[in-house]
Write a sequence for this structure.
């Protein structure tokens, strides 16, 4: 049996850029909120590309919010999130020692072959799942990341990847413009991307042109997160698929972006 | 000894808690979180004769204590259900309701005839889905039209027939009476309320279909009132639902007159919410010295 | 330069935000928190010909994102209103709607005739209060009966006549059309939804009347849908309400087709909520480059 | 103009008995949640018997909760509250430094004549407004307080009042039984009471018998707290009255208890 929602206790919840926060949690002891568990067996689990549903409130808002795993070590989970609306705003106000409810890990996650030379292409907060991917991958990897006007997590990335290519729309860091200006697909065995739809769409097209396999991590409004509401469904070349269950990672070729 | 058993049309539920259609798939995903045999029953995702892909665009939108959905009956079709889903469900030791939607009377009839041949326990006839263009809800608005649909389906159907009512019906009591006269063995209510939302920055409705279905705790007071009114007007068993999130809500519906209750949106909030509700009902019965559900059904 | 003015039946509102009946008294208490002249208008507490004490027992009960109320039209009666409340309201430099309830057509007529003689700007005819035994809501359920009531009142009434619709109407669009044909100058919708709650420990309904009226954010998606449907069906101006808590909600109603909006339950949550809404609308218009409300009315 | 809801910042929020909490707040600086104001002019105000509406949440629960002033000094307000349901439960979980929204002071409050000899009769959490009353009253006063099975705030009371009469239903402190067993109305110029309806009803009857003026502080479900919803209305000999506006303090003779 899988575990339902369980409580996590907050270790830290800090703002790292405008509207961007990093939160770290460990699972709570079922009997007491104040004892946090960090042992391997009871710690948070999950692989790159998977996500958790988070609730930092009782029933208002009614629905939980999906957030990708940004890191797990020693059972402590890290999420990187952008404050977009009410849910993420409430989470951003939580303090060390507060608890929230988590369900996961959910979704399929990325599958990688260690021998490949891969490229990671992120746009904005889409960097979150790719950081975890990057940390786990020991092979040859280039990291392209685009931001609007403020870059974050660059030190973390540079620590793991030799070849980083940064862009910002305002030119404050790295190339001025879009990350797709920098990205050249032809050199890679596989490309993995997460970010705004138009960016991912462009990356997929570039890869298709060069016959490079590409995987995208999709976003969609979710209610259940486990495959039953059919709210998160997207159209693919092989029919309707649930982002929370068959995804969030899809082959770039199967996703129908123009919808 | 408390006893949570409930019988409806000769079908015995081990407890009054049923997973509502469209919020529980065919049970597979929830089976990973708890044994489905704990449930009184499961109502399948709404089935149409042929496979449907459902609606495009936004499908779920959060509102105050509720959600609007516009799934549009995405489902594998009756044959897909019988082949791929029913065998799994049959193994779960719980009552199976096949929830049947459709856009023509003929479609309903053919679907029901195919289901007659299976091991499902009951049919829940959905005359009330607001998310498909023709038919569906139209049947659930006017009592006269509902009477025709239900009469025809009744003739075709060899299983106990529950008719699922729409809260958008012009007159819920008349609707219930018509369906009863047409031969329904039981009624379930309510389905979702027609609602909408607007994206003020794009100046467009949030949903491609404009109108979507509202569910969740926000609708509970209205759903409860409808169950109360209907249970006083007809003699057939009633399955109450609409915003049930905990055992207290469930007890309210039972005290208003429901035989069983269904949990819908709640499943999205907590996968094992039905277990909490079942255990809460048992606990309440113990504390209040209630031995069987009948003692409190319609007690107010 | 943005302009928030709205005209309905020749009456000019400085902005589209009106305080809803029964949630704002006669303005006195709110006048202590902000100048009432900031408001587009105020709809008085529902008035009956004679003074009423209202209902006994629990009158307010909280639900998920809503409240059930069973006030039962406690009010000082038309003459009490004219003598004790209207003089205060007249001084506030805002549009005054006298909200009129009743249980017989005669009662409505006599009330309206007395109000004809006053300085109120409009009459809002409440054919939809669920909290009084006879009349009241009954008039608001069946379009035919509503037609009769409104026609008669229309003849008696020399003021612009807004008819306030119940969401419990069998068919809200037909209802709107009937009231329009009967001579209404405008429509306001929605009033409260019939709902109920049960005290499971006492095994009794929470309210003496069993059924009470549901309002607040929970009803917004349904209210918005009704305003949308009605605004497409009739040509007279519409005042939209139901769960409006902020400027975004207000803009949604306007984009769905409403001329003005009313704030009800929101007043209880924050006495000066209407000011936030007015300022929010202005801000939104500035940011979106909207010069007048008309530009976005019914734009979706 | 009166002030609408304003923020208070929590100084302390401690449990003092089973389900009974004491919370202390000072008003927040309008510009920053972290600066608290304690100056007289911007501090919380109100007289004994008046109350505030409290919100320790956004919109769920939808309604605020009425709580009587238990003390105000240096602009810092103290409330004494019992956890009964969701609202008070949420408030009990708030911590030092958290904020909540307050509207007040509301209601009429007690009116006292300093020359009188008065009796205060409290039942359970009904003691809250009477503590503030007691602190402000410098005349001759007896305090009768009844509890179910755990007494609290006794030190505070004894500090101000010589003549205290305590009862608990289980006899753990003071008289075993009801406070009305101890109370003798005949000696007083005025009696003030707050507690469960049956208790207040009894006190009023006892006073009526002896022709002693008695004032009761009533409870009622409230939505607005300022007199507009008519949700809190009670029946009195002079018609329907609003607990939040004409009350919560009423003359014992005018209240119709049997309803
Ligand atoms: C599998 C998955 C993984 C995700 N991982 C992360 C992550 O690691 N970090 C992170 O910051 N965010 C992530 N997101 C996005 C995150 O879930 C949303 O930003 C969040 O739910 C917004 O909630 P809110 O209450 O703050 O905003 P809301 O008030 O719900 O919405 C704010 C705005 O965002 C839009 N919006 C909300 N949800 C979605 C959605 N799912 N798709 C498209 N538009 C939406 C709304 O229309 C609205 O305009 C992920 C989403 C998915 C599906
Ligand atoms: C003027 C006034 C002053 C008050 N002062 C204090 C105070 O100083 N300290 C204190 O602890 N409490 C005080 N109360 C009572 C307090 O407001 C309620 O206990 C509180 O609102 C309960 O909220 P909740 O969300 O915890 O419980 P809920 O979940 O709302 O209700 C819990 C239970 O209490 C019942 N209930 C709730 N509100 C009321 C009510 N107003 N009247 C009768 N039954 C009710 C409900 O039926 C339910 O059974 C006061 C009430 C009023 C009207
Ligand atoms: C996402 C979603 C899908 C639904 N699909 C169906 C369906 O296929 N057939 C049906 O009869 N009801 C369907 N419903 C309605 C529910 O079964 C239920 O009647 C309604 O949601 C009210 O209950 P609730 O408030 O507990 O959710 C659906 C509801 C939701 C939220
Ligand atoms: C406590 C209360 C009293 C009300 N009294 C009246 C009334 O006297 N007349 C009337 O037409 N509507 C009355 N209403 C209905 C409101 O005016 C409004 O139509 C309804 O509450 C929906 O709007 P809301 O969700 O913004 O509150 C009352 C509502 C409440 C909550
Ligand atoms: S979120 Fe429910 S199916 Fe994916
Ligand atoms: S609480 Fe609204 S009138 Fe008293």
């Amino acid at each position: 049996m899988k575990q339902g929602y369980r409580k996590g206790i907050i270790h830290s919840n800090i703002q790292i850029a405008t509207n961007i926060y990093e939160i770290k949690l460990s699972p709570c002891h079922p009997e007491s909120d104040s004892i946090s568990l960090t042992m391997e067996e009871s710690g948070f689990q999950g692989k790159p590309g998977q996500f958790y549903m988070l609730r930092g409130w009782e029933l208002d808002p009614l629905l939980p919010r999906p957030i990708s795993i940004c890191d797990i070590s020693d059972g402590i989970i890290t999420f990187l999130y952008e404050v977009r609306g009410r849910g993420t705003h409430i989470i951003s106000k939580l303090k060390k020692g507060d608890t929230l409810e988590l369900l996961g890990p959910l979704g399929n996650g990325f599958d990688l072959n260690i021998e490949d030379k891969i490229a990671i292409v992120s746009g904005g907060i889409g960097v979150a799942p790719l950081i975890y991917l990057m940390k786990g991958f020991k092979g040859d990897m280039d990291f392209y990341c685009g931001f609007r006007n403020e870059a974050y997590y660059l030190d973390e990335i540079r620590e793991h990847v030799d070849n980083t290519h940064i862009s910002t729309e305002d030119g404050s860091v790295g190339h001025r413009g879009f990350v797709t200006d920098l990205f050249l697909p032809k050199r890679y065995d596989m490309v993995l991307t997460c970010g705004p739809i138009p960016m991912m769409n462009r990356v997929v097209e570039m890869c298709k042109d060069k016959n490079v396999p590409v995987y995208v991590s999709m976003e969609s409004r979710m209610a259940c997160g486990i495959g039953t509401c059919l709210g998160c469904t997207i159209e693919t070349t092989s029919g309707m698929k649930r982002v929370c269950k068959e995804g969030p990672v899809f082959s770039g070729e199967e996703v129908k972006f123009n919808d | 000894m408390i006893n949570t058993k409930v019988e409806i049309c000769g079908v015995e539920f081990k407890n009054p808690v049923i997973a509502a259609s469209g919020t529980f798939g065919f049970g597979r995903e929830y089976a990973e979180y708890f044994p489905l045999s704990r449930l009184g029953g499961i109502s399948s995702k709404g089935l149409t004769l042929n496979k449907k892909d459902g609606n495009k665009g936004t499908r779920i939108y959060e509102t105050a204590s509720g959600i609007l959905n516009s799934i549009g009956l995405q489902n594998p079709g009756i044959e897909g259900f019988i082949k791929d889903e029913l065998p799994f469900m049959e193994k779960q030791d719980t009552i199976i309701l096949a929830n049947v939607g459709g856009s023509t009377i003929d479609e309903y009839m053919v679907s029901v005839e195919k289901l007659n041949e299976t091991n499902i326990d009951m049919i829940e006839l959905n005359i009330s889905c607001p998310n498909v263009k023709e038919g569906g809800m139209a049947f659930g608005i006017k009592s006269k039209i509902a009477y025709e649909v239900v009469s025809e389906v009744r003739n075709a159907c060899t299983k106990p027939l529950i008719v699922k009512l729409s809260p958008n019906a012009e007159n819920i009591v008349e609707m219930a009476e018509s369906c009863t006269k047409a031969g329904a063995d039981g009624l379930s209510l309510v389905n979702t309320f027609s609602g909408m939302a607007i994206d003020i920055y794009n100046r467009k409705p949030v949903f491609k279909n404009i109108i979507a279905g509202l569910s969740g705790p926000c609708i509970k007071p209205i759903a409860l009132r409808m169950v109360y009114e209907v249970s006083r007007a007809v003699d057939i068993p009633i399955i109450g639902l609409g915003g049930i999130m905990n055992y207290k809500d469930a007890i309210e519906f039972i005290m208003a007159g429901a035989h069983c209750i269904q949990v819908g949106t709640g499943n999205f909030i907590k996968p094992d919410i039905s277990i909490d509700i079942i255990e809460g009902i048992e606990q309440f019965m113990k504390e209040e010295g209630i031995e069987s559900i009948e003692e409190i059904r319609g007690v107010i």
User: Anything to note?
Assistant: The helical segments of chain A are 86-92, 127-136, 154-160, 179-182, 197-209.
